[in-house]
Amino acid sequence: MPGPVKLYGIPRSRAFRCLVALEETGVEYELVPTDFTEGVKSPAFRAINPNAKIPALVDGETVLFESLAINLYLMRKYGDLWPRTVEDEGRVFQWTLWTATEIEPPQMQWAYNTFVRPADQRDPAEAAAGAERLKAPLGVLETVLADRDHLLGAAYSPADLQVSCVLYTAWFNGFDLAPFPKAKAWLDRCLNRPAVLRARNMREAA
Ligand SMILES: N[C@@H](CCC(=O)N[C@@H](CS)C(=O)NCC(=O)O)C(=O)O
Fold first, then answer.
1. Which atom of ligand 1 is nearest to the CA of 65?
2. In what order do the strands lie in the sheet with 56-59?
3. pLDDT of residue 82
4. What is the pLDDT of residue 125?
5. To test the ligand 1 pocket, which listed residue (8, 13, 53, 169) has its Cβ within 8 A of the most ligand atoms?
6. Which fold has domain 86-193?
7. Spelled out in words, what is the top-level CATH class assigned to the domain 5-80?
8. Domain regions of the chain by residue span
9. Confidence class of residue 1 from pLDDT cuts 50, 70 and 90?
10. 114 HSE (CA, 13 A, CB side)
């Protein structure tokens, strides 16, 4: 009998996204504290993730890296969030790749230059450029959410989890979402779900 699913990482990292997925699925798991400075460099961790980055997941014989891929796997295998139709699966893949490519890069450009890097290494022009770039995908969300409560329709789905967990960084750290009221209300809904609050408690207490 294999033990619980093991997530390597710390809550104040991209492992947060996987903590949300784990909490949403209800699967038994163990968080193996591994930080992104020293922990990722150990030979034992590099054997799990040769990228030397967190998060990584071990589920029996299955070893995975990439936070959003880990989430797809978890939601496909455990819990009851995974969609019932191939068409909705396609939409989940679409939103997952969209958040990785359209949201994450400009958001990190803004975040690195706003609060992540030490103050003397931040470039305000870069922060402004990232914020400007982020407005385009936020505008897409605003349009899509004009006639529905969630990305695939009425119900929360893995698409909402993937996009909202990436946007948590902007939402939590004061990005101006006022021009995007539908997207803001949707983020408020997604990021205050009971499972997400359990993951947020781990992250925000850390
Ligand atoms: N695309 C990867 C990025 C992973 C990543 O960059 N993780 C950071 C922590 S949030 C890390 O481990 N950085 C260590 C390093 O770059 O040396 C994912 O989403 O899992």
1. 20
2. 29-33, 5-9, 56-59, 62-65
3. 98
4. 98
5. 53
6. Glutathione S-transferase Yfyf (Class Pi); Chain A, domain 2 (1.20.1050)
7. alpha beta
8. 5-80, 86-193
9. low
10. 18
